[in-house]
């Protein structure tokens, strides 16, 4: 058994593996004899099958298994002997021109083509530039959050009907913020079109659920009133049959309701989980939640800046096989996510180029981070992991149950360890690089993170 290694490219190698054919045949014969002990065939008792029949029935599979095992072992031994860190799996093929039908004493040869991990040398980080995102939570953000929470708890009353919250005022015409229930019919060139007619259709004016011209025509109507108006659908409208066309609509207002939002008082605080309705506790609780969210998003943006700096500071060749594996992984993750959203994409192929840039970045960063962790002992400690899990748990009603959830599953815990490890790298780089604080307004931070 012998091996030889040649360099094909920066990271690509080819190893020629040769095995004595007699050794392979001897092992095949040995395995066939073992198989013969339990082999079955019609007309023969188990274990009584003639060896010729055993060889005919199992010979090809056994020879394949023996060759795969011996070539695999030879490849692994040679990789260790030559100090090769193999990336991914090798592509093994019979060597061109090899005579695997030769007589005993001759050889069978294979070529194993593979890539190795690159040498990773992180550049001088003292010259790297990193932006550290900074954001704060003020009383204004708490007030905005309370307003959002009020809107989430809005309920509607018929305009003009007296109730516990009043009658909605004397103006009985529809306006923005009101919920309207309408019948409508649309025609193009005098002919009704599919999707252009509905009865008892409800929506809130001003939320943008309907096209602007439609909402404008509904504003000002009173219950029982109708209006006829023309509307041109946008060229990029999702309904291809009507896109860019002008329709004539008739709309009738059947029901008009005004919005009542709860007051921010003790009762409101109780609905937010403050048992005694203490208003200050409510605001403190909202502040704590917002600060946790801000901390997470600030950390994420700063991490992105650090990772960009590391990529700029480190030159390395990325193994193609690892990028291909990452593309496959990202493709499967996308498929699972879309299926969970109710989309039928089971057999839909995803072009690899959709994920190539992201996959290459992830592989590159993985190699860089692994080198930094190894070189500077940045591994996640048990104490750090425990602290991170407890931080996650604080945003839940029963923190202890969340802690138990993570520590009861090694896979979940390893995900936390990966986050802590990244945080250790980020902190290490921040301690070395040129760091500039980048203040970001609360609203901008939330909007940017939502789009990311």
List the helices and strands and how they pair.
Elements: E1 2-7, E2 12-20, H1 21-36, H2 51-81, E3 86-94, E4 107-116, E5 129-134, H3 139-152, E6 155-158, E7 179-188, E8 191-204, H4 212-218, E9 226-232, E10 246-260, H5 266-271, H6 279-313, H7 320-340, H8 356-376, H9 382-393, H10 399-407, H11 410-430, E11 434-439, H12 442-451
Parallel strand pairs: 5-11
Antiparallel strand pairs: 1-2, 2-4, 3-4, 6-10, 7-8, 7-10, 9-10
Q: Give the class-level CATH name of the largest domain.
A: Mainly Alpha
Question: What is the number of beta strands?
Answer: 11
CATH architecture of the largest domain: Orthogonal Bundle
Helix and strand pattern: EEHHEEEHEEEHEEHHHHHHHEH
Major β-sheet annotation: 5 strands, antiparallel
- Please state the overall shape, judged from the principal axes of the Cα atoms: extended
Mean pLDDT: 90
Q: How many distinct folded domains?
A: 3
Q: Which regions are unreliable across 5 or more consecutive residues at pLDDT < 50? A: 100-104
Strand content: 15-25%
> What is the gyration radius calculated from CA atoms?
35 Å
| CATH-assigned fold name of the largest domain | Trigger factor, domain 2
Q: Give me the secondary-structure category.
A: alpha+beta
How far apart the termini lie comes to 54 Å
- Helix content, binned percent: 40-55%
Please give the oligomerization state of what you see: single chain
* Count of discrete alpha- or pi-helical segments spanning 4 or more residues: 12
